[in-house]
Amino acid sequence: SAKAPFIEIVTEGEESVKAAMDGTVVFNGWTPEYGYIISIQHQNNWLSTYKQNGVLYKEVGTFVKAGETISLVGETSDKRKMKGLKFELWHNGVAVNPLNYISF
Length: 104
What we know:
0% of the residues lie in helices and 54% in strands. The protein is built from no helices and 9 strands.
């Protein structure tokens, strides 16, 4: 299966991750491939997913506002051991290129 489009945001250190839009946390968990993941359901069938977190701050069912801190970045998946985040944006169940919708 094809990988979903995403952007990787590399940071200098323990940066906080902020919610892209208002919404409700629908997933909060750890996976072997992407570390801690948090997903937020937004209005009009939008979903944002934040992978490679080091720490998660929001539980499933929590409503968050745009710009609210939801986690701290973790280590990127490559061997450089840099801090960063994999960000995905989904609409109606289809992954879209986040750069087409959000300014970073």
